[in-house]
Amino acid sequence: MKKLWAGLVLAIVAFVSYFFFFLRFPITRDVPWVPVILFLVTFVLLFAGLRSVFAGGTRLRKIAASALTLASLGIVAFFCLTVFEGRNLPASKGAPAVGQKVPDFTLPDVNRHPVSLAKLLTAPGTKGVLLVFYRGYW
Fold it and tell me: Would you state the torsion angle of the CA atoms of residues 119, 120, 125, 131, taken in this order, to the nearest 10 degrees?
Protein backbone atom coordinates (compact mmCIF):
# COMPACT_ATOMS: atom_id res chain seq x y z
CA MET A 1 0.00 0.00 0.00
CA LYS A 2 2.92 2.35 0.61
CA LYS A 3 3.82 2.24 -3.06
CA LEU A 4 0.26 3.16 -4.01
CA TRP A 5 0.22 6.11 -1.62
CA ALA A 6 3.62 7.17 -2.95
CA GLY A 7 2.25 6.94 -6.48
CA LEU A 8 -0.73 9.14 -5.58
CA VAL A 9 1.48 11.72 -3.87
CA LEU A 10 3.91 11.71 -6.81
CA ALA A 11 1.03 12.20 -9.27
CA ILE A 12 -0.17 15.20 -7.26
CA VAL A 13 3.37 16.61 -7.06
CA ALA A 14 3.87 16.19 -10.81
CA PHE A 15 0.56 17.90 -11.57
CA VAL A 16 1.06 20.82 -9.19
CA SER A 17 4.75 21.32 -9.96
CA TYR A 18 4.04 21.81 -13.66
CA PHE A 19 1.57 24.64 -13.11
CA PHE A 20 3.43 26.34 -10.27
CA PHE A 21 7.05 25.84 -11.36
CA PHE A 22 7.77 24.19 -14.72
CA LEU A 23 5.28 26.37 -16.64
CA ARG A 24 7.63 29.33 -16.15
CA PHE A 25 10.42 27.94 -18.32
CA PRO A 26 10.03 27.36 -22.08
CA ILE A 27 12.12 24.18 -22.00
CA THR A 28 9.69 22.50 -19.59
CA ARG A 29 6.53 24.37 -20.63
CA ASP A 30 6.55 23.57 -24.33
CA VAL A 31 7.36 19.89 -23.81
CA PRO A 32 6.49 18.95 -20.22
CA TRP A 33 9.11 16.25 -19.92
CA VAL A 34 9.68 16.56 -16.16
CA PRO A 35 6.03 15.87 -15.20
CA VAL A 36 5.89 13.09 -17.80
CA ILE A 37 8.92 11.42 -16.19
CA LEU A 38 7.29 11.83 -12.77
CA PHE A 39 4.09 10.29 -14.13
CA LEU A 40 6.06 7.35 -15.53
CA VAL A 41 7.54 6.77 -12.07
CA THR A 42 3.97 7.03 -10.76
CA PHE A 43 2.91 4.24 -13.13
CA VAL A 44 5.77 2.04 -11.93
CA LEU A 45 4.80 2.62 -8.29
CA LEU A 46 1.13 1.94 -9.02
CA PHE A 47 1.92 -1.24 -10.90
CA ALA A 48 4.22 -2.53 -8.16
CA GLY A 49 1.75 -1.58 -5.45
CA LEU A 50 -1.21 -3.20 -7.18
CA ARG A 51 0.79 -6.31 -7.87
CA SER A 52 1.77 -6.74 -4.24
CA VAL A 53 -1.74 -6.02 -2.90
CA PHE A 54 -3.49 -8.36 -5.32
CA ALA A 55 -0.92 -11.08 -4.67
CA GLY A 56 -1.90 -11.48 -1.04
CA GLY A 57 -4.12 -8.74 0.29
CA THR A 58 -7.55 -8.74 1.83
CA ARG A 59 -10.62 -7.69 -0.09
CA LEU A 60 -10.69 -4.30 1.66
CA ARG A 61 -7.03 -3.65 0.77
CA LYS A 62 -7.76 -4.55 -2.85
CA ILE A 63 -10.65 -2.08 -2.97
CA ALA A 64 -8.52 0.65 -1.36
CA ALA A 65 -5.66 -0.10 -3.75
CA SER A 66 -7.99 0.16 -6.72
CA ALA A 67 -9.37 3.48 -5.46
CA LEU A 68 -5.87 4.93 -4.99
CA THR A 69 -4.88 3.77 -8.45
CA LEU A 70 -7.99 5.28 -10.04
CA ALA A 71 -7.37 8.59 -8.24
CA SER A 72 -3.78 8.68 -9.47
CA LEU A 73 -4.78 7.80 -13.03
CA GLY A 74 -7.49 10.47 -12.90
CA ILE A 75 -4.87 13.08 -12.03
CA VAL A 76 -2.68 11.92 -14.91
CA ALA A 77 -5.63 11.97 -17.32
CA PHE A 78 -6.67 15.46 -16.22
CA PHE A 79 -3.09 16.68 -16.72
CA CYS A 80 -2.95 15.22 -20.22
CA LEU A 81 -6.30 16.72 -21.18
CA THR A 82 -5.38 20.12 -19.76
CA VAL A 83 -1.87 20.40 -21.18
CA PHE A 84 -1.91 18.45 -24.42
CA GLU A 85 -5.49 18.95 -25.59
CA GLY A 86 -5.45 22.61 -24.55
CA ARG A 87 -2.97 23.22 -27.35
CA ASN A 88 -5.57 22.17 -29.90
CA LEU A 89 -7.84 25.12 -29.19
CA PRO A 90 -8.65 27.10 -32.33
CA ALA A 91 -6.95 30.42 -32.95
CA SER A 92 -8.94 33.51 -32.13
CA LYS A 93 -10.03 35.28 -35.30
CA GLY A 94 -11.00 38.49 -33.49
CA ALA A 95 -7.74 39.07 -31.61
CA PRO A 96 -5.63 41.99 -32.82
CA ALA A 97 -2.32 41.24 -34.49
CA VAL A 98 1.01 42.62 -33.33
CA GLY A 99 1.27 46.29 -34.30
CA GLN A 100 -2.41 46.58 -35.20
CA LYS A 101 -4.35 49.51 -33.76
CA VAL A 102 -6.68 48.36 -31.01
CA PRO A 103 -10.21 49.74 -30.81
CA ASP A 104 -10.95 51.87 -27.76
CA PHE A 105 -12.38 50.09 -24.76
CA THR A 106 -13.14 50.81 -21.11
CA LEU A 107 -12.52 48.40 -18.24
CA PRO A 108 -12.59 48.77 -14.46
CA ASP A 109 -9.28 49.13 -12.62
CA VAL A 110 -8.44 47.47 -9.30
CA ASN A 111 -10.57 50.08 -7.49
CA ARG A 112 -13.50 49.49 -9.88
CA HIS A 113 -13.10 52.90 -11.53
CA PRO A 114 -13.55 52.87 -15.31
CA VAL A 115 -10.36 53.39 -17.31
CA SER A 116 -10.39 53.73 -21.07
CA LEU A 117 -7.59 53.04 -23.49
CA ALA A 118 -7.91 56.54 -24.97
CA LYS A 119 -7.51 58.07 -21.50
CA LEU A 120 -4.36 56.01 -20.87
CA LEU A 121 -2.87 57.02 -24.23
CA THR A 122 -3.48 60.74 -23.62
CA ALA A 123 -2.08 60.77 -20.08
CA PRO A 124 0.96 63.08 -19.68
CA GLY A 125 4.29 61.32 -20.13
CA THR A 126 2.74 58.26 -21.78
CA LYS A 127 4.46 56.99 -24.92
CA GLY A 128 2.25 53.98 -25.33
CA VAL A 129 0.32 51.26 -23.60
CA LEU A 130 1.27 47.62 -23.43
CA LEU A 131 -1.69 45.27 -23.71
CA VAL A 132 -1.23 41.67 -22.68
CA PHE A 133 -3.85 39.14 -23.72
CA TYR A 134 -3.96 35.91 -21.79
CA ARG A 135 -5.57 33.12 -23.65
CA GLY A 136 -6.70 30.78 -20.96
CA TYR A 137 -8.45 27.45 -21.17
CA TRP A 138 -9.41 27.02 -17.54
Answer: -160
Rounded-to-integer distance, Cα 49 and Cα 69, Å: 9
Going from N- to C-terminal start, the domains of the chain cover: 2-88
Tell me the chain's radius of gyration from C-alpha atoms.
Answer: 23
DSSP string, 53-103: HHHH--HHHHHHHHHHHHHHHHHHHHHHHHHTGGGGPPPPSSSPPTTPPPP
What is the predicted pLDDT for the residue at 133? 64
Residue 85 to residue 24: CA distance in whole angstroms = 19
pLDDT in tens, 57-95: 889 989 999 999 999 999 999 998 888 887 787 877 877
Do 4 and 53 touch, CB atoms closer than 8 A? Answer: yes
Beta carbons within 10 angstroms of residue 23's beta carbon? 14
Q: Measure the CA–CA gap between 87 and 12, rounded to whole angstroms.
A: 22
